Amino acid sequence: MTLDHVTTGQAPPPPRPSLHQVENQAHWPWLPKDGVGVLAPHPYCRDCGLVKFVGAARALDGGGLSNLLAKLSRRLHDVGIRTTEAQRRLIMLRLLDRQADDAFGMSRAAQDRILAEIVGKHLAVPPDVVRSYLHSC
Ligand SMILES: [Zn+2]
Questions:
Q1: Chain-centre distance of CA 15, in angstroms?
Q2: What is the distance between the alpha carbons of residues 50 and 22, in angstroms, rounded to a whole number?
Q3: Cα 97 to ligand 1 centroid, rounded to whole Å
Q4: Fewer CB near the terminus (10 Å): N or C of the chain?
Q5: pTM here?
Q6: Residues 112-115: contacts with CB within 8 Å, 24+ apart?
């Protein structure tokens, strides 16, 4: 995805198709959930072989990331760090550019790291500060 439609004022491009082909559930490997103890079937992509995180480590989808960004913006607003709609849209586009909504290639922790980095860059706030507010969302 490019940012061309932002500067030209055109409608954003349609959502991109799913990057991965989920293998039939009968073939899902049983792996430790969240990396510890309890085993659970994990979906994986038949094309690239990436295994999806399940449980608490599961990544948010695009809508979930958007909701998290909105919550983070409200939390930052409470402490005097204001965000505009344009900044939130650009942050969301940067997240999608980095494929942060890819549930197969991302864990929730990786999403939080990328979100803190991008929000920090756009709002000129250290990513560590953003992460501390992110944990309270
Ligand atoms: Zn794949």
A1: 15
A2: 10
A3: 17
A4: N
A5: 0.79
A6: 115/65, 115/68, 115/69, 115/72, 115/91
